[in-house]
Hints:
By secondary structure, the chain is of the alpha/beta class. It contains 13 helices and 20 strands. The strands form 5 sheets. The chain has an 8-stranded parallel beta sheet. A hairpin with a 6-residue loop joins strand 14 and strand 15. It is globular. It binds 1-deoxynojirimycin. The site of 1-deoxynojirimycin (NOJ) has 9 residues, from loops.
Amino acid sequence: MTQHLAAPTSGTESVNPGERPEWWREAVIYQVYPRSFADGNGDGMGDLEGVRRRLPYLKALGVDAVWLSPFYASPQADAGYDVADYRAIDPMFGTLHDADAVIRDAHALGLRIIVDLVPNHCSDQHDWFQRALAEGPGSPLRERFHFRTGQGHAGELPPNDWESIFGGPAWTRTKNPDGTHGDWYLHLFAPEQPDFNWEHPAVQDEFRSILRFWLDMGTDGFRIDVAHGLVKAAGLPDMGHAGQLRLLGNQALPFFDQDGVHEIYRSWRKVLDEYAGDRIGVAEAWTPSAERTALYLRPDELHQAFNFHYLGTGWNAAALREAIDASLDAMRPVAAPSTWVLSNHDVVRHATRFADESAEQGLRRARAAALLMLALPGSAYVYQGEELGLPEVTDLPDEVRQDPSFFKENGQDGLRDGCRVPLPWSGTEAPYGFGPAAGGPSWLPQPASWAELSVEAQTGDPDSTLELYRSALALRREHPALGAGDAVEWLDAPEGVLAFRRTARVDGGAAWHGDFLCTVNTTSEPVRLPAPGRPLLASVPLAAPGDETELPADSAVWWAT
Ligand code: NOJ
C-alpha cells in the first residue's frame, strides 16, 4: 500500500522553506553524528568526506538543514565534545578543506549547515589549559578556568560538593610542575573537559572570534552545547547534598541556568546578525521549566532551543498534548518557534524507548510519533537513522564501548553508544555501505538485522519507514498549513487519541487548499471515528475510509479537509 495517499490538488511549484525568510522557524534539521554517518576513507570511522558524498541523500530526504556534531581537533575523551582546537578539524574526520567542501556542496543543494559549538568546556589538551597547568599556581592563564585550592587539612578535598554529569566529583586535583599536589579544577563533565571561566574577558573574546571563524567559513549557525552551563553561581556554593544528576532539568542548580548566561547570548546575537542570511543559534539548554528555556530565545538572544520536555514525554496522548501546549505557550511570549525532537546522540533511540512490549510495537509507535512531530508548528529535529526506524543497539560488548559515562563508578549505564552505531546504507554484509568496502571496519559493530534496514533496502518500498519520512517531508514542504506557526487547534477525540487541526496560511502558489488535520491513536486498540477528511499519509496501512474511519492501534494519519 502507498503511504503517501493523495497527490496535491494542483501541480504548482512548491516553495522551498530553505529560501523563505526566517527559514529556521519551520526548518527540519537533520543531526549528523559524523563518526557514525558515512566513512569516506574506509578506516571504520565516519568523516566529512562521507558526509559530503551523502548530502544528496539528505536533500532527497527533504530536510532543510544539517547539524553536524563536533568534528574539531580532539582527543575524543567525549566523542569530540572535548575540543583541543576550535579552528581545526580532527584528522580522523578530515581537514578544513573537507569542511569547506561540505559547506559548499550543501549550499549548492539548498541545504544549510549548523555546526556544534562547545563553549562550556574544552579538552584538557587545549593549549590554554596545558599552559595553565605548566605555569603552575598563580599563572594568569589559570583564571580562564576554575582552579581552586582544595578543602581539608592539606587541600586533599574538592573545593565544593558539585558532581560531574558523568559521575564522581566535578573536580580533579592537579600536580604542580614540581610534582607536589596542587590545586583542583572544575569539570562538569569528564576530567578531560575543564570548564572555562566565562567571567574572563579572554574567554568571551575568544568565542566571539571562533563564531566569526565558522561564520566566515559559511556556516548557517551553531548548536550550542551546554548553553545553560557557562556561568556559575558566584562563589561556587555547595549544593548541600548528593544525587545532583537527577535534578538536572527540574530544579535550580548553582552551576546551570544562571541569569548571567543571557548577556553572553546577547553579545553572540550581535555577531550572528552581522552576517547575511539568518545565521542561527540553537541552545542545548537544560532548565527547570519551559519558561526558563524561553528566556534564551528572546528576540536579541538565540533562535531555538531543544525541547527536551517533548523528547522525554512517553507514548501517551494526554502527556503529549500537555507537552505540546506547554511548549507552544512558553514560546509565544518571546515569538520563538517551538522545536520538536524525539532522539539524539545522547538518548536511547525512540523506536526502542516506545517499545513496551515488542520491537515491532516500538517501531509502529516511532512511525506514528514522526508524523505527529512533523505536523506540529515550528522546527523539527531528525536524528540520523530515525528515518530508517533504527532501534537502539542494546547488546554492544563492553570492550567496544567508548562513552565516558560507561567507565565511571556509579555513573550512567553507558547507554549512549547504542544510539551511535554506524548507519546501514546498502548491501548485505557489514558495514552495509557505511564504509567503501564490504567486510570493512566500523568503529562500533552493526547488528546483522540492519541489512534489512539499510537505505538501499528501504528505498522504493512504500511501506518502509524511509519512504514514510520522505513522503511526510515532501508534504510538509507543500502544504501551507504545515511548518511555521504557534498554535494547534485541538479537536474532541476519544481517550488516548489526539486530533488537531492546522489552518492553512495564506500562501499564493501553494499546491494545497484547505486545512490540515492530524489524528494519533496512542492506544493499543483500533478506534472508530467519523472520517475527518481525505487521508494524505498514514503511519500504517489504512482501510479506505467511508463516513467512518478506523484509526489502527499506535498510528497517526494526516488528513486534508
Ligand atoms: C551535551 C552533548 O550532547 C553530549 O554528547 C556531551 O557529552 C555533553 N554535552 C558534554 O559536552
